[in-house]
């Protein structure tokens, strides 16, 4: 049994892990992690009130969008008006150029030189753009948002495609949210946004030829144009997916004649499949004509070089053999197996997509779980492989492959309750242990965000489960030097924050210590209060079980190490699957001396496991105290995985909006 501590008994936390390095070197101030190469020099480049973004006159056309985007974002970040100009740079300017003299590897690589001027050179506008993101991140980590350490860096990605997939078929996300994801992806140097646009909950593309097919919540042609124009500014490619012939419930509801008559293929074992109409009856010429007309309208709506046709979660072989019309069609066509009908259909779609000058992409499915076919998908098709952690098998067959390993990079928060459960990514294992194999023909890796069994949750709820895995994906697919642990990487990422200029950044926890806590459990479970500062969400503080537990309030006090301009905090509930001690009502106070306290925030947290961010009018203080006034289950305990303190940029004074 653990000892029960009296209220406000002070003690000092001695951290067990190495201290993180400070923010000065540019090589340690970026997301993804460190630059591939960095050679530092003394001093800093400084942004001044006369600074400009400059492009050579001969390159003004190709760099116009990148320069304008950079200047706009830089102005928002620094609070200074940064104009775009042509010609030669002066002291304090940022020069963007595509003249590299062969010093930059790869089309997305760049060279950053920080001297009296700041120069970003790359062979393509995309490489220049990634250099601008690095500069913005270094500036955001600087308290004054005006300095970049002098030196020279070369940086380039390990993989060509660095992708996120979002399931908007089961859950609709507004265009504004998709834009925010594009901006975040660009900040993390992810370059591909795969939109799963159709599923049993809705067909999300409005068409002129089939106006009643789309769900009420769907995207018009103008929505998609706006979204793609925005994505182009940030060098993100949007790959659309119309999932065929499975996941077709909205299509068969629109036209029931497209359904299979046999129940074995009409219904399916996957969520939504019990309704029937799951798979299009592609044995009918009417169905194939409908699909052809539909895709002929949709494919030209997208700029991407790829068009994804789905192809997954079609009934397994027993379901196929149990369908008389499918078996009859197979025999009439002279195919060896019913599965050949679906491979043939995939190849038919591929010819149509290629007819529009694009490359087909599809999910690996025809060959999984013992399914048989005598023909194979055309080698022109790019395949998303998800079954194995190692994508080598398909790559060795000559296919170009995007690896989306289900057990590593599927983000399906409707299923898992703790890290390592299905769909709840174990970020430690992925960051520290997974090799991200890249044999020949593997073009990159993709994190797949699925909405199953959580369709009514908010976008912010889903974001909690995706935030860390996307950071890990960005770090590992870009491929610079890694931190020793994933927790150290997250601490560095939090110190920079996201692309929104007004977002507060996290204070490094290496300089903090817990000075008092009223209760902690160290006997029946490891629940020491120091765990709220270990940057490890898999551990947590828990108040004592015995003797008879005290009722709330419970409180924890932290010395941040120095006076800071504080702007908020994040409370992360325990992430081990339990909800005991989850905080409901809270009070957050700050102090200059640890004796006199002032309240800066009160409220009630939502009863779920997502991280809660609270912001308040920036105020200067050294000590912080979180008082848990009640638990969501009404019990006597308090628990907390992490307490993260947020700071405001220098000179800010307006209230910051809650995330």
What is the overall silhouette? globular
Poorly predicted regions are 1-28, 652-659
Average pLDDT, rounded to a whole number, is: 93
How is the main sheet built? 8 strands, antiparallel
Question: How much of the residues is beta strand, in percent?
Answer: 15-25%
What does this entry look like structurally?
The two termini are 40 Å apart. It is globular and about 85 Å long. The model is unreliable at 1-28 and 652-659 (pLDDT under 50). Helix 11 (392-396) links the parallel strand 16 and strand 17 (401-403). Helix 1 (60-78) runs parallel beside helix 2 and helix 3 (175-187) runs parallel beside helix 4. The chain is an alpha/beta fold and 659 residues long. The longest helix is centred in the last third of the chain and has 20 residues, at 459-478. The strands form five sheets. Strands 1, 20, 21, 23, 24, 25, 26 and 28 form an eight-stranded antiparallel beta sheet that branches. An eight-stranded parallel beta barrel has the order 9-10-13-14-15-16-17-19. A seven-stranded mixed beta sheet has the order 2-8-6-7-5-3-4, with helices on one face.
